[in-house]
Structure formats: C-alpha cells, structure tokens
Amino acid sequence: MTVIKFTDSLDYSAQRALVKRILETDMKWEFEAKRLKIRVFSEAKTGLDIWLSQALPVPGNMPDKDYLLSLPELQPNHFILLMESGAAALAQIKNNEIIRHKVIKAYMNRKKQGKSQLNYLKTKGKSRAGSRLRIRKSIEFFEEINQKIIDWGGPEDAERICYKASIQLWPYLFKSDIAASFEKDDPRLIKIPLNTKSPSYNELIRVHKYIQYCHIDVYDEDLYKRIK
Description:
About 30% of the residues lie in helices and about 30% in strands. It has about 230 residues and is an alpha+beta fold. A hairpin with a 4-residue loop joins strand 8 and strand 9 (about 115).
C-alpha cells in the first residue's frame, strides 16, 4: 500500500512553475481533468498527487498537456458558495480578491432534533404553525441565495463556481421560484474537497485561501525534491 509521507502546498505562481517542470521531463504522469488532479509516477507507483487550484478554467476538450501548458498567469475569477441547512455564505472573487460577500441565515431547523425541515417533510406532515414557518423560511433561503447572485451580475465572467453543500440540500437551489444563474450541470461547478465549518465570512476567507493554492500528497520524497 502506498503511504503519504507528507503534504505540501504551493501558491498559484509556484504551482504553474511546478507543472511546467513536470511536463518538461520524461516523467510518467496522468491528468484527471474533472478533479484537476495530476498524478506523477515513480517507477510503477504513485509518486505525487497534485491537486491544482480549483479556480482554474474548465479543461474542456483540450489535450491534457496543452491545457496544463496554458494555465493562466493570474488566478481566474471565480465564485464561492458554501451552504448548509439554514446558513449560506457567498463570495465573488476578481483579481484574487473577495470583492463581494454575503452571509445568509434562515430558520429551517427543528430545534429539538436540529433536523432540517426539508428532510423532516419527507416522513412527516406540515400542519403545525412552526412547520409552516420553517417551510416558508426554507423557500426564502434559496430564493435569497439566487437573487443575491443575480444582483452581483451572475457568474458569467467566472471561470469556476466552487461550492460545498450536502447532496440533500443542493437540488433545492435549482427548484427555487427565483431561478439559479447557472444550471446544475454547469461544467464550471466544482465541489470543494475540504471539510468546511458553518458558513460565515471567516469561513469564506479560509476557503478562498485554500482555493488559491495547489495541494500535494507526497509519496516519494526524492521525486518531489528533484522537481520542486
């Protein structure tokens, strides 16, 4: 079993330089475009897993090497959306700066159980006044998220829409009476591979910092020393 020796992180410019050095060698590598991951092999084993910055453009139909050689010098514009039951945080990033942000709260959970009213409705009724209030607030929650993104001009000039939400909650964003500014199968969508805390401005800053960097799982220390 291949074991991670240590992990490392590189800023955006150092990431581009590292990728270029890998491509200039005769090292064996493969690129997983959907996850923006480069795997570099050491003999027949995994030497490095390089998770590129999640703000990078969608690869599309470009050959892997052409795409990796054309990584932009500056980090592209992107959106961040963090969402859990009753709380969301949004940020618009341009020139690597958060230019707009918004935290949205809603009364969606049943206090005793801490359970989302949306999930509760799958098995129970909605006759009580408290339930009806939570349902209305839940509807308004997704409408407010979509409206705020519209107010910001939508994500038209964003290369990526980086999000974190549960699979139970995410579909409701696209069922809102105020339509989402992007489709649920938008190729720019990428799920943030990070354990996030409750959505807040501080959490947006932490996630934004994470997205700026590439993250490297090092299995072969000697290999990493040679190319870093």
